[in-house]
């Protein structure tokens, strides 16, 4: 299948490839056969990514962290909903399907059109073909159940002003909801903007725009955000990080180069 993706949209292929390649590891961190199936059906030069072992490892660690966090939320909150923003070709619903939950995967129309080649909607699984900033999608999400919002590999491509505006809208509409986001350090934002980092690594025209150095910095973006916890990728599967496992013991290095999953809640009230 030929692909017609450009810019930031094309980055959705990196996590897909990363999870597909993980299946070949002796002790895979995640086993995603759906990702393998999709990769086999796409006409794309994936071998260009083979040298990016650190990116591949980061993706599967974030996948494991998010899977566990979603499973924990589902266990603690019955009959709820999950909305996955900028879902790309993510396969989490296939792995964690819980019939007591409504699941919504949201992305741009062209991406959702691509997804429909590999996923079918059901009574509990839905796809929404809108920009995350087209707040019309809010009305498709049930507002009277526990809600978990996911944004991985997404928010770093937008400005702090855009991220802050999104959080403001979410806080006003979904008070009490919890959110899991992937964040990158500000140093990688600067490196991306100064040296076209993503284009050099993956031949994809995209740039990072937003980052934070500590998880609790999300509270600065909106008064109704309550930071809960965060998980730094370098702290997991240290045997796979090669020399980085030792460099990450230096706080300066860890904070400048490692990604995190940040978990927070939108407190009750109006931002």
UniProtKB/TrEMBL annotation:
GO terms of biological process kind: methylation
Keyword vocabulary terms for this entry: Methyltransferase, Transferase
Superkingdom of origin: Archaea
Gene Ontology MF term list: methyltransferase activity
Cross-referenced InterPro entries: Ppm1/Ppm2/Tcmp (IPR007213), SAM-dependent_MTases_sf (IPR029063), TcmP-like (IPR016874)
PANTHER family (UniProt xref): S-ADENOSYL-L-METHIONINE-DEPENDENT METHYLTRANSFERASE YKTD-RELATED, S-ADENOSYL-L-METHIONINE-DEPENDENT METHYLTRANSFERASES SUPERFAMILY PROTEIN
Protein name, per record: Class I SAM-dependent methyltransferase
Organism this protein belongs to: Methanobacterium lacus (strain AL-21)
Classification of source organism: Archaea, Methanobacteriati, Methanobacteriota, Methanomada group, Methanobacteria
């Amino acid at each position: 299948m030929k692909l017609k993706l450009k810019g930031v949209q094309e980055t959705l292929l990196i996590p897909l490839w990363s999870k597909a390649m993980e299946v070949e590891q002796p002790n895979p961190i995640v086993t995603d056969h759906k990702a393998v199936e999709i990769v086999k059906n796409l006409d794309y030069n994936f071998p260009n990514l083979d040298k990016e072992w650190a990116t591949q490892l980061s993706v599967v660690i974030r996948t494991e962290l998010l899977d566990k966090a979603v499973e924990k939320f589902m266990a603690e909150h019955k009959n709820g909903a999950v909305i996955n923003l900028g879902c790309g070709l993510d396969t989490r619903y296939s792995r964690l399907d819980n019939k007591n939950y409504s699941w919504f995967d949201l992305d741009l129309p062209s991406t959702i059109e691509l997804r429909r080649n590999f996923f079918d909607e059901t009574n509990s699984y839905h796809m929404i073909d809108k920009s995350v900033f087209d707040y019309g999608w809010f009305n498709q999400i049930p507002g009277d159940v526990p809600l978990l919002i996911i944004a991985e590999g997404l928010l770093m491509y937008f400005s702090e002003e855009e991220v802050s505006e999104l959080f403001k809208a979410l806080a006003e509409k979904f008070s009490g909801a919890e959110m899991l986001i992937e964040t990158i350090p500000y140093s990688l934002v600067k490196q991306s903007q100064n040296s076209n980092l993503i284009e050099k690594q993956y031949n994809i025209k995209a740039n990072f725009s937003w980052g934070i150095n500590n998880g609790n910095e999300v509270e600065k973006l909106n008064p109704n955000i309550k930071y809960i916890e965060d998980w730094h990728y370098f702290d997991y599967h240290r045997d796979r990080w090669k020399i980085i496992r030792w460099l990450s013991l230096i706080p300066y290095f860890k904070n400048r180069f490692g990604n995190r999953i940040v978990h927070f809640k939108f407190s009750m009230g109006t931002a």
